[in-house]
Amino acid sequence: xxxxxxxxxxxxxxxxxxxxxxxxxxxxxxxxxxxxxxxxxxxxxxxxxxxxxxxxxxxxxxxxxxxxxxxxxxxxxxxxxxxxxxxxxxxxxxxxxxxxxxxxxxxxxxxxxxxxxxx
Amino acid sequence: xxxxxxxxxxxxxxxxxxxxxxxxxxxxxxxxxxxxxxxxxxxxxxxxxxxxxxxxxxxxxxxxxxxxxxxxxxxxxxxxxxxxxxxxxxxxxxxxxxxxxxxxxxxxxxxxxxxxxxxxxxxxxxxxxxxxxxxxxxxxxxxxxxxxxxxxxxxxxxxxxxxxxxxxxxxxxxxxxxxxxxxxxxxxxxxxxxxxxxxxxxxxxxxxxxxxxxxxxxxxxxxxxxxxxxxxxxxxxxxxxxxxxxxxxxxxxxxxxxxxxxxxxxxxxxxxxxxxxxxxxxxxxxxxxxxxxxxxxxxxxxxxxxxxxxxxxxxxxxxxxxxxxxxxxxxxxxxxxxxxxxxxxxxxxxxxxxxxxxxxxxxxxxxxxxxxxxxxxxxxxxxxxxxxxxxxxxxxxxxxxxxxxxxxxxxxxxxxxxxxxxxxxxxxxxxxxxxxxxxxxxxxxxxxxxxxxxxxxxxxxxxxxxxxxxxxxxxxxxxxxxxxxxxxxxxxxxxxxxxxxxxxxxxxxxxxxxxxxxxxxxxxxxxxxxxxxxxxxxxxxxxxxxxxxxxxxxxxxxxxxxxxxxxxxxxxxxxxxxxxxxxxxxxxxxxxxxxxxxxxxxxxxxxxxxxxxxxxxxxxxxxxxxxxxxxxxxxxxxxxxxxxxxxxxxxxxxxxxxxxxxxxxxxxxxxxxx
Amino acid sequence: xxxxxxxxxxxxxxxxxxxxxxxxxxxxxxxxxxxxxxxxxxxxxxxxxxxxxxxxxxxxxxxxxxxxxxxxxxxxxxxxxxxxxxxxxxxxxxxxxxxxxxxxxxxxxxxxxxxxxxxxxxxxxxxxxxxxxxxxxxxxxxxxxxxxxxxxxxxxxxxxxxxxxx
Lengths: 119, 674, 166
Prior knowledge:
With 119 residues, chain A is α/β, with parallel strands linked by helices. Chain A has 5 helices and 5 strands; from the N terminus they run βαβαβαβαβα. In chain A, helix 2 packs parallel to helix 3. Chain B folds into 5 domains: 142 residues, Four Helix Bundle (Hemerythrin (Met), subunit A) (Up-down Bundle); 87 residues, 2-Layer Sandwich (Alpha-Beta Plaits); 57 residues; 180 residues, Histidine kinase-like ATPase, C-terminal domain (Heat Shock Protein 90), CATH 3.30.565; 152 residues, SH3 Domains (SH3 type barrels), CATH 2.30.30.40. Chain B is extended, with a radius of gyration of 35 Å. Chain B starts with a helix and ends with a helix. The interface between A and B is large, with 39 and 41 residues.
């Protein structure tokens, strides 16, 4: 199972990768939405975990674009964010996010949520 | 997992940037600027530190940062006014934050109440204190961040669940929810297909089914709800528990969340670029610069006569290339603000420790220098600021007696002058006590007792190794590490240090630094068939080696009489085993200053010119070579080695003047140690 | 870096490791030093260029002839003849430098000429016979018989050991 993570913080990216790789997932990474779309074209992924606040292309725009492509209709997408407020969740859902994860994340919590939305 | 250490490293690097930014924002706020963006940026820095701290489980740090975050959240949402008192508390709190981060980084165990005062102080200034302060509450909670439901009797939970179309659109699948429920206990599943239309009317992407689950579990309602966390609004859901003796719902400790969303309109006219990409660009432009040198070598009088137009265009092109190179080098540059911003804190601390009243004024914080230079500038700068407070500024009563304001003043200023950056640290203290410096230098045998030195020369004695003017080594100036270390570090960066002082009025230390480490100004010299580059910053003078200037000293080889001293003469041919050429031209000595401040004469055959060279790594594909600082590519495309004068001298001291052929010796060594 | 093409466009991308050899066969670049033919795995070869002069490196081992400028990168050149203990190469314009990547470092091997590209099965590589310790060559990894000739495989990782006299 391959997971695409999109985050502009090196710390978060490395933490994500370490946690997921240790749990046996394949990980591909991107720094922003734009890169995320490119990586997505080149790799078949089973889940996307994306930050919201990023330069170049933020998470909302990124996910909107992903969902516009019918190929990715059933692809689970999690937002990784510091602002898991109701408003935020509403926006996230409106554009088609599957779920969300609060930053900072606990590695066990991350894996639990990943398992919750993937086969 | 070894990687964790690596991530922590990244985190602490990020923290250093964030703390620098926080300090800078608070500094601007303190100077009276009330731009809301400053508050937002402060909040962001604090928030990001908390994020990382959470990821690594630095509980003490999390609890502390949370207080700061809460306060800044209130300020940024205009629920709390930023008074001077509050700001001062925040500045102190950020100092302590830096200490906590540092303690977390090095794994230091701080005493139990280290941060309590600062946290409580801040909470109080923000009006957050109640019976028990916010921080103490948090600190006690932080050890029980997650709490699982207490083991209890199994209960039956009935869940009615009917997804809406939207749930599938968001890639939430009912089967995954069933799987999750199964992890909680035994599940009985009943499917209601009554809503299913005739086969030909089915839209494969729509949702028609409804489920009823009967779950026997000892989990609480929160845990069961969690399975539906992402779909709650995309389905009809009802969860009911039976056989509930008493409502013993587990109470989850309030997690350290509670942020409210805020508009985040961060618009900066900048982009983030990987350093690697920039370096690639710097390298490429370096190549262009080399190509330019090659082209300009082809322009001669003949060409000017025959193709005047071509030469004119080429000259214009060369000018553009030069500008391009400078612009590209500027990409790596960062404002010195990031390190300047840490100085006020240092001054505050020293001020507290020494009982001296000191103020710091800064200018030119936006002056930019290469990132690498900046990183290595922090320690020398810190040291000089400490020196200024510790040794320069007088005690308040002494200042008053001398007719000066009670509060001492330190000025820190950066500016660009041509291709160099000048950083100046000025204090209005007592100045250098020249008589004492002189006596000390004589005591330490650094100068002769009857040496005649100008005021300037005396002042600069403090840069000599091991020199320290403090009679007792004070805690503050750093255990005997003196200005000689500053001198050494700045020299390593290709810079220079000098000091001017007026007794009773103060001192001024000036650092001159290169804009970048990627290029250096060098003198191209030839020794035998080999070409070397000597960094210009090291060179004092070059002179023809006349017989009357050279003496043979038994056991020490040749010495050169230069000004009023004798310098060791090092022949590069001998040091590097370069065969001499047939026709011996007049040899030259390049007088260079090495790291400890002493001078040596390097003997070469010819000076070929001066030029700016792009520094290339030898280690990238080879290894470190003693005596060589790196390589470069000259205008003719040939590689030339850049000399490390200090290492050349060490090499020379270690090896007998007429050593045997080293090449053969190597081969034999290898046979011995396969 | 020279081999940008070898790197992924995205530094974090993982898990793209195509099988290098189909059915255990791999390609090797063969070249000649004196009478003997040698070879190295084609995957480690970055380019082949004509000999140009080098800038000598002080305190380098004798088999390191110096460094050259390879499009802006400083690359050391190893005289394979000296390294294999067969005297010193007297290089001319017709001599060739094979640029190889060894443990992330670019190195040039000065050889007489490049002779062929060989496709060799892993199973065809024979170990160096034990000749009693005397004449064992530490810089060879194995022997391959190609038609009538014997080709020796260079042990690249050992080739660049102890290049500097400290």
